[in-house]
Amino acid sequence: MPPVLQSIFALPLRGLTWLGGQGTRAVAAVVFIALAVPPLGALLRPYVTEAIFVLLCISFMRVDLAALTGHLRRPALVATATVWTMIGVPVIIGLIVHVTGLTARAPDLALALMLQSMASPMMAAPALAALMGLDATLVLVTLVSATALVPFTASLFASLFLDGMLSISPPALGLKLLGILAASLLAATVIRQIFGAAAIQRHRQPIDGFNIVILLVFATAIMGDVASDLVARPVSTIGFAALAFAIYFTLLAVTTLLFRRIGYERALALGLMVSQRNLGLMLAATAGALPPTTWLYFAMTQFPIHLAPYMLMPIARRLTARAQASGAAATGGKAASG
């Protein structure tokens, strides 16, 4: 590359590398930047689908195929976690929504909760787990299997629970999800073939930084109206934020307890994955044709999604240290007995 071009690209590359090295702090900062700059929301909202597509490409591009194959040789845990996140969660949320009469009393909120429960986990979940020192490989493998199922499970649960609440039919929703996922997987495969897995791993930090930039684009687009909503209807806006935090941490706690037998460190990694729902994928599949209340709730979910990994870091460090100490003790015991 000519020296002029090298100098042009050097500064952005250093910036992305620095940003990628900030870890959960940068992820947490995204939500506050998006909240502080409302005009960007209107500007970027038309590009929500493109932002989701790029995030999917980055995640698929970074899949560790060797680790994926290794975990698939022990499929029981992955299958159980996949069934819980893609079938158990939407069934429970769907029953709660209907039993409480929320579908009739607040249909737009019911729609938001159902779309949240039907969504697959966020593609950034393995990266967040890695930043927290948790088992990112287990999260990745479960995420891949859950994402493969979402076109079919989302179509099924939309038929069962949404009953005409969407502007798109359940089969069309499934087909759009399948198309988005297939196109992003194809693009990621082409990128891996061109640049190679080694180069992608070598440039991990700038790619992390670019991923955070795209997260900012998405968060800004979805949160563009939050400041005005907070002024216009403060009680409902704060209530939606409280509900988003409550659902996030309930899913996190229940999943961690359900899988505690595999160790709390790995169970917390699965809990993080289950609570991080990919609402952007649902927005892309519905082309953003959702009621304002549904949009507002989706915006409020960005707070726990971006803040929780930073908040949970001390717990993750303690669990990781305990797991490492247990492993070292077990290894020492075996050596002594040998």
What would your notes on this structure say?
This protein has 338 residues and is mostly helical. It has a single domain (47-318), classed as Na+/H+ antiporter like fold. 84% of the residues lie in helices and 0% in strands. Helix 2 runs antiparallel to helix 18 (292-337), helix 5 (65-72) packs across helix 10 and helix 15 runs parallel beside helix 18 (292-337). The radius of gyration is 20 Å and the shape is globular. The chain starts with a helix and ends with a helix.
Which CATH class is shown?
Mainly Alpha
State the share of residues found in helices, binned by percent.
over 70%
Order of helices and strands: HHHHHHHHHHHHHHHHHH
Give the beta-strand count.
0
Q: What structural class do you assign from the helix and strand content?
A: mainly alpha
Distance between the termini: 57 Å
Characterize the largest beta sheet: strand count, sense, and whether it forms a barrel: none
Give the overall shape, derived from the CA principal axes: globular
| Count of helical regions | 18
Radius of gyration: 20 Å
How many domain units? 1
The average pLDDT is: 82
- As residue ranges, the low-confidence spans are none
Concise structural overview:
By secondary structure, this protein is mainly α. It is 84% helix and 0% strand.
